[in-house]
Design goal:
10 strands, Rossmann fold, alpha/beta, binds adenosine-5'-triphosphate, 6-stranded mixed sheet, single chain
């Protein structure tokens, strides 16, 4: 059974068709890479899956039941959405901001208990944030902020994590760390949809890739099946440079942790 399944999803914004009948599925333990040119509709699809954008057509299922019958609290417990350029709207320490991720699991006025605290500490370590506990979020660099927001999403222990370009502001080492973290999250049974512009990261880490072009799925399947020279030409209008030769060589991850 698919954890999330959409069929013929349609979204119009400002009078323009943005998603034009997209089928979607996500299994437990799966990392799905959502790739495609700027303006293809990746963020719009993610917002539909997060329940932030009601589709104008099609339907969406959560574990085979109607997605839209989940209450907002149920959705917050089971699904985390990491926006493209997330922010915090008032000054707050990193530790408090990450702890907010536990809120959907606590009743009104309940404080985080020992188990919550242990989880928060573990995720802070995994996201390389232990030294930032008391720092104010608004004093952090862009890459540090991205890691804090990912940590907040992970402490919620969601069944599905929707991450819009989670590595966009990160240096090489932190890109690898964040992708490995998402990989471990999926190995523990989580499901992730990750919007990526770096096709090498997508090829290396994702089980399956969906290539969206102009509001439609151009290709979907294994990285090898989707990231072909023909699809790159159609989607992005590029071809492999003659100096490189084969497309598989462009998709090798050139760095590992030293
Ligand atoms: N509120 C809106 N009104 C009109 N058009 C919109 C609105 N929101 C988004 N769009 C348009 O919808 C299209 C898809 O946007 P979306 O953000 O989903 O693309 P994307 O694939 O995530 O792009 P990128 O890679 O640049 O982040 C774009 O052309 C965008 O300009």
């Amino acid at each position: 059974m698919n954890r999330l399944q959409g069929s013929q999803l349609v979204v119009s914004l400002g009078g323009a068709a943005i998603l034009k009948g997209v089928d979607f599925k996500l299994n437990a333990g799966e990392m799905l890479g959502l790739v495609g040119p700027n303006g293809a509709g990746k963020t719009t699809l993610l917002r539909v899956l997060a329940g932030l954008q009601k589709p104008d057509g099609g339907n969406l299922l959560w574990n085979a039941g109607d997605y839209f019958s989940l209450t907002a609290r149920e959705r917050a417990r089971r699904l985390s959405y990491l926006a493209q350029s997330g922010t915090a709207h008032w000054p707050m320490s990193v530790e408090r901001l990450v702890a907010l991720g536990r809120l959907p699991h606590l009743s009104d006025w309940q404080k985080p208990g020992e188990t919550d605290e242990a989880l928060i500490e573990q995720v802070m370590e995994e996201t390389d944030l232990s030294d930032f506990n008391t720092r104010q979020f608004n004093t952090l660099s862009g890459g540090e902020r991205s890691r804090v927001l990912l940590a907040r999403a992970l402490v919620a222990e969601p069944e599905v994590l929707l991450a819009d370009e989670p590595v966009a502001a990160l240096d090489l080492a932190h890109q690898i760390e964040v992708m490995s973290l998402l990989q471990r999250y999926c190995e523990r049974g989580g499901s992730a949809v990750v919007v990526l512009h770096d096709l090498r990261l997508a090829a290396h880490y994702c089980h399956r890739i969906m290539l969206l072009v102009d509001g439609k799925t151009l290709a979907e399947g294994s990285p090898e099946a989707v990231l072909t020279e023909q699809h790159m030409r159609t989607a992005f209008g590029v071809q492999v440079s003659p100096e490189v030769g084969a497309i598989r060589d462009t998709l090798k991850l050139p760095w590992v942790r030293a």
